[in-house]
Amino acid sequence: MKFKERTFRPSAVILDMDGLMFDTENLTIPFWGVAGKPFGYNITYDIVLRMVGISAEQARLVMKEEFGDDFPYDAIREEFRVIVKKEIEKNGVPLKPGLMFLLDRLAAAKIPLGLATSSRSATAINMLNKAGIIDRFAALTCGEEVTNGKPAPDIFLLAATKLGQPPSACVGFEDSPPGLQGLHAAGIRSIFIKDLLEPSKEILATVWHCCKNLKEAAKYLKI
To answer: For the residues 140-155, what does the mean pLDDT come to?
Structure first.
């Protein structure tokens, strides 16, 4: 489905988290290398890029494809999680430009906000609390709640259900190609804010709007 109208007032908005609201992808990607070293693995930047926007279980497959079936994914992921948590505790959560502007506009317009993240709920709740914005969200939908992660539409469909709205009444924000594919498959208007990855032309053809930042995107929402 391709949405042709230039502006639209959604009944609900669905946001991704890492790389979209929080500038955490650039921050945390090197931590995979740090986490892997004690286990004897050199986890490089390009390998981690292949995991951006997908679920933990899909990331497991990426790592095992790269390093073999005996790769200790759970142990290294837990070490990675501990390192990231310490960093966030020490320095806080880096917000993406325009985030607070968008959240304020949505609140003023009384448009409910949902989260759809591949991260687990404990991580998402901690991040949102540290950023001081968890009370902005009417519903949280996290990676462990769906069997099929992005690029499948499941997490977005569940988020829309939690918000009490049909997918066609929602707008979703994403920074990753898998997320954009998931929004399209769910029948949700997508707004792409680039972080690390450039989607293919085929994926970009399905996107409702591409914007430089979250503040710019607000003009398309009739709020």
So the answer is: 96
